[in-house]
Amino acid sequence: MFPAFQFNNGTVLRGILEVLEALETNSGYVVLAFLLSRNPDFDNKNAVDLLQAGDVETVISEARGFLRHGT
After folding, report:
1. Confidence at residue 29, expressed as pLDDT on a 0 to 100 scale
2. What would you measure as the largest C-alpha separation in the chain, in angstroms?
3. Residue 37 gets which letter from DSSP?
4. Is 5 in contact with 14 (CB distance < 8 Å)?
5. Checking phi first, is residue 37 left (phi over 0); if not, alpha (psi -120 to 50) or beta?
6. Kind and range of the H or E run holding 52
7. CB 54 within 8 A of CB 14
8. This prediction's pTM
């Protein structure tokens, strides 16, 4: 089974694969937390909202720094 939010009109949501690579984790829970949690850096929207709006680069940039506090 696959979460439906990662698809748009029967195709994979643009940018989702790049975001998964940028997160550098094998944890499905971490991925879901990143994609579905509201983020103040995204104007209190979640990453999926931004991907659906086409703002792929912002989400990828945030994913690169996710869980890298203090590095």
Report:
1. 94
2. 39
3. S
4. no
5. beta
6. helix 47-52
7. yes
8. 0.86
